[in-house]
Amino acid sequence: MKRSHDRSATDAVAKLDPWEPLRRAALADAHPQADRLRAEASDRGTAEIAAARERAAKLRDKTVAEARQTAEADAERMLSDARGEARELLLAARRDVYAGVMQDVARQASSHRSDYDAMTRHLIRDARRRLGEEVEIIDAPDGGIIARAPGRQIDYSLSSQVTRCLAQLDDEVAALWS
Q: Distance (Å, rounded) from C-alpha 93 to C-alpha 88?
């Protein structure tokens, strides 16, 4: 009987509010629908979190790879710079050695003044033979002479003579660099 009493109470409420049965039916349907929506939202959230983690991992990997490439490029540039500096130092040392050899040879040549004077006379004769008697003979600043004729010149300076001699000794002079 109690049921009939509940039903009669419900019927009484329904008579007062005609929308009550519809509300009850909607609420009955809403609970499962809310559970389904919560489950879908949870699944979507889990999927979004997984996707965000995957994007973060890819971004981290890309950033690490770019940093590695940048570091390798920097290391290559630094190595190239160091090689260039070493090459410059080596060439400067070679120039210094070569200049020293040139100075030593010039000093030795000048120390033989009597031979030097005879050699200068020989060079003047050779210049006149090659360029003509009207050749202009100029004393070179470092010793020796420079012979000039219109449109022609022969450099018999001590430095050019030493350079020629050293060029003929190519392999022997190259050994100085090794």
A: 8
Q: What is the per-residue pLDDT across 94-143, written as a single tens digit (0 to 9) for each?
A: 888 877 877 787 777 667 666 777 888 898 999 999 999 889 999 988 78
CB 110 within 8 A of CB 120: no
User: Which among 157, 46, 66 is positioned nearest to 105, based on CA atoms?
Assistant: 157
Backbone angles phi, psi at 169, to 5 degrees: -95, 30
Distance (Å, whole) CA 114 – CA 140: 18
CA–CA separation, 74 and 137 (whole Å):
58
For residue 147, which of 167, 122, 112, 169 has the smallest C-alpha distance? 122
**Measured between alpha carbons, how far is 107 from 139 in angstroms, rounded to an integer?**
17
Q: How many contiguous H segments (helices) and E segments (strands) does the chain have?
A: 5, 3
Q: In what order do the strands lie in the sheet with 144-149?
A: 136-139, 144-149, 152-157
Phi, psi at residue 156, to the nearest 5°?
Answer: -105, 25
Query: pLDDT by residue (tens digit) across 36-57?
Result: 889 988 999 899 999 999 999 9
